[in-house]
DNA sequence: TCATATTTTGACAAATTGTCAACACGAAAA
DNA sequence: TTTTCGTGTTGACAATTTGTCAAAATATGA
């Protein structure tokens, strides 16, 4: 991600090679992403990915232990991309309304810009989840998102803005599910963007808002 | 499903054979279900399914055009099972509260009784969806569920019980997403069943209830 | 230019998936 | 009883997909 202008002679060897190496990986990942989205997991062969990436077939297995690992890396990359966008947006939000609307908006824009990517990533995350060599299962970014919502909710409760009879973990997960509607549904079907986002935001906020608080919705 | 006691000589041939045929299919489907859930889609080979079902390898391909089709049939079967349970339950419900709580409860019981089945079915539905030979894509049962919620919501709006600024289609989908939290999450994690169901029900009802209506929640 | 280290490659091996000619079995006809 | 016929089953085999690795290509520093 950073431009490499001048490098010391000492580093030049590994630096250039690392860049080349990283390049191959990125090209493969980009190709994989395109094909997984276009044709689905099954109709995408490691061969196809390699060819589209412009590298030899064997190179694929230098960067991914197998096809499944490649898919998981694709999912991870897509999720991290959205994650970065969401975090950036959340940093600018003051109210719960802004937070909910912001997350939905960012997700929707991403879906428009990258059709099918989030849908595949979301579905794949569940179907493909795999245990680590050490026996543990990596907590998915989905769980992380749910946990973040849980925190937001817990803070809202302390401030008296959110019903205090909620278990933040559970409701955090519920909010996540609603927001993920944007990712899994077909954007063409939902019609007007503003209409869709407003509806979902209202639903979530009304579900959260403690008595007397909810009337202030200004959407 | 129906007992065959006496059959006319005329029917006897095809009747017995049909039963045998249906048996093979059911055995395969049951085996597939067990293995897909236990090991996941990838680590389940058509061979394994056939062996567990106690039929020859070739028989598998008599009933499923390929492995993917077998998985889709598994998904369909699981969804139809839950669907029947949910419909039966809904028929007994008078209030929205009962409906929401009922659907959640039925789903949760099913998940406890059939660990992993709904999770696999839900994820698979999205990842594996395939176009029909005739070009159309079969509307998934998930869409049907969303549509049912939409109807419920529309009726609630007419009765003045639900916010009338909602688009029923969108909020129907949102409610569906929340209820599907039961299917996708790990039941062990949620802890107390009552606690979990009550939280989700409250969230949904508070999100739906028109002003002045929501205070009557008696959960 | 040479010696060394790193990355790439595609022919090959392994595994999985899918096909089909031969077979098994019950029912009706000869 | 024996033969014929239709249906369902089977596993050896073929096709495809997945994964490996010794050899080759490329880069680096002396």
Provide a compact summary of the structure.
The structure is a homodimer of 219-residue chains. Chain A is mostly helical and 219 residues long. Chain A is built from eleven helices and no strands.
Topology overview:
The structure is a homodimer of 219-residue chains.
Chain A: H1 9-39, H2 46-53, H3 57-63, H4 67-90, H5 96-113, H6 117-128, H7 141-158, H8 168-179, H9 181-184, H10 187-190, H11 193-208
Helix pairs in contact in A: 1-2, 1-4, 2-3, 4-5, 4-6, 5-11, 7-8
The structure holds a DNA duplex (30 and 30 nucleotides).
What does this protein look like?
The structure is a homodimer of 219-residue chains. Chain A is mainly α. Chain A has 2 domains: 12-64, Arc Repressor Mutant, subunit A (Orthogonal Bundle); 74-216, Orthogonal Bundle (Tetracycline Repressor, domain 2), CATH 1.10.357. The first copy, chain A, is 70% helix and 0% strand. The first copy, chain A, has 11 helices and no strands. Chain A is elongated, with a radius of gyration of 21 Å. The model of chain A is unreliable at 1-13 (pLDDT under 50). The first copy, chain A, binds a DNA duplex (30 and 30 nucleotides) through residues 9, 12-14, 16-17, 20-21, 24, 45-47, 55-62, 65-67.
